[in-house]
Amino acid sequence: MRAVISVIGKDAVGILASVAAACAAHGANITDVTQSVLREYFVMIMIADVSALNVGFVDFASELDRLGAERGLKITVMREELFSAMHDV
Fold first, then answer.
1. What domain range is 79 assigned to?
2. pLDDT in tens, 70-89
3. CATH code at position 71
């Protein structure tokens, strides 16, 4: 199973590293990533294999949401099939 992880917020050093570390700590394998800085805003989308999570998916998503709140970011984690269904309309 894969998930789409989006990150948006003011640019700062270490955003990619902190999100990647949180993914690794919970057993999520990042398979693709794109990021950009638009003026002072950091934008990133990751695709992660979450089939080997060491916590439940909801707990994983909550942990990344908490990380985002700590860093002043909006981090959203969505199952890929739900993300795809939303955009197939």
1. 2-86
2. 999 999 999 987 776 676 65
3. 3.30.70.260
